[in-house]
Hints:
Helix content: 10-25%
Radius of gyration: 18 Å
Largest sheet: 14 strands, antiparallel
Structural class: alpha+beta
Shape: globular
Number of domains: 1
Amino acid sequence: MQTNRLQRRASFFSSVFPFWLAASLTLGMTGSSCNPSDEGGTDTETANQAITSADQAASEASLLVSITAGLDPSQTPEDLASASAALADGMKPQDCASTQVTGAQVQWTFQNCTGPFGRARLDGTVTAAFRTGPRGTTADVSSSDLTIDDVPVEITATVLVKDSAQGQTLEVDGSLKAETSRFGEMTQTGAFTVTWEDATSCVSLGGTWNTGFGARTWKTTADNITSCPDSCLTGSLTFEGNSRTYNLTFSGNGEVSWSLASGRSGTVQTACGQ
Length: 274
């Protein structure tokens, strides 16, 4: 059983970071509309906000998996904190991540860390406090002075860690705030589920959260947003607000299509795949 877990941890570091990369490379988005009534590009701009929401949720998901990969939920909270700290060996360059374990709590400090593929740069501190609750093993996660690819991010989340023969599932409930370069401050509050599958080395994300840009809030629903090695994101997303619902489809090659019930539609080409 322990050998299988070690193998799963190795598999994780060849799967979650491509997912992180596919998510984070939505920067530099360009868009076009298939209908001249795009209201001066407003619809395309909203689609870009929806993609940014998915991007940040995927980055958060990958970070949470990176500190829980292969953990055995049946262990004591103290043992889980120690096992989480051991995952620092998978970060690059060597010794870029340090950990400090105090009882059932582990504090990660990242200094210009990346995954094995040399992308998704991390700086700052993340703390996870493990506990056993009515629903099972839970980690209370918070960040301090954290940046992901130079984007300042604040994360507060409760993460329920579940294990299975196929892989691992995280049930996440919390909030995120990011200072995006294109849209300024973005907030997200809600719940989503992250699944990491051993057999495919793919990571999937699904759930519903509220996304805020300035004074406007959108109900965001992700359906099987997935990345596999050597692939950009796939899956679908709905972005609902201001009496409109935008339906987005991630193609897996970096192109994202959007549409409205009115018939307006268009595409956004992300940096992933270029």
